[in-house]
Amino acid sequence: MLAASVEQVRCPTCFESESRVVDSRSADEGQSIRRRRACSSCGERFTTFERVESVPLLVVKRSGPAEPFDVEKLVEGLTAACKGRPLTRDDFERMAIEIEDAGRAVGAEVTTEWIGLQVLDHLRSRDPVAYLRFASVYKGFDNLDDFEREARLIKIAQPADVSGDTDQL
User: Fold this and answer.
1) What pLDDT was estimated at residue 160?
2) 92: which of 54, 78, 119, 169 fits an S-S bond (Cβ 3.0–4.6 Å)?
């Protein structure tokens, strides 16, 4: 049932608001529905598309303003932070999309701090060296002790490898 404030689709020929659907099918790989309609007044046939409206995920910056989440911006940041590591652009794109999906589950807004923690979680399990590099910038390491502490935490969290080597740092 349509709400009273929603207008009906109008015929592009006579602008009549009454039409009937004569055919519906999936379009855009399931992202929309294509509907063929026939105008009740003039009989003209026309096509409409129904899509889910996507509300942008907003990222609240440390300085205060918010901007739309940008997958490409996150991928570029990951590429720079993980240069020389065995992670691919596809890996970074998957991480960015997973982080965006997790952000949408949290709400309409996330902070840059939340995104940074999500990146750390993803890198920790995929590439501990990339994790340590990213953490050093994100957490603002000041000295060697910071690196050693974080490396120790990574090693504790990692399961022992198949050779049985469980030496701590």
Assistant:
1) 55
2) 78
Best CA proximity match to 123, nearest among 137, 113, 134: 134
Tokens of 7: 């207008």
The Cα–Cα gap between 135 and 157 comes to 15
Bigger pLDDT: 2 or 41?
41
Q: What is the pLDDT of residue 156?
A: 84
90 vs 101: CA distance, rounded Å: 16
Domain ranges of the chain: 19-51, 58-157
> What gap in Å lies between CA 35 and CA 24, rounded to an integer?
4
Helix (H) or strand (E) holding 47: strand 45-51
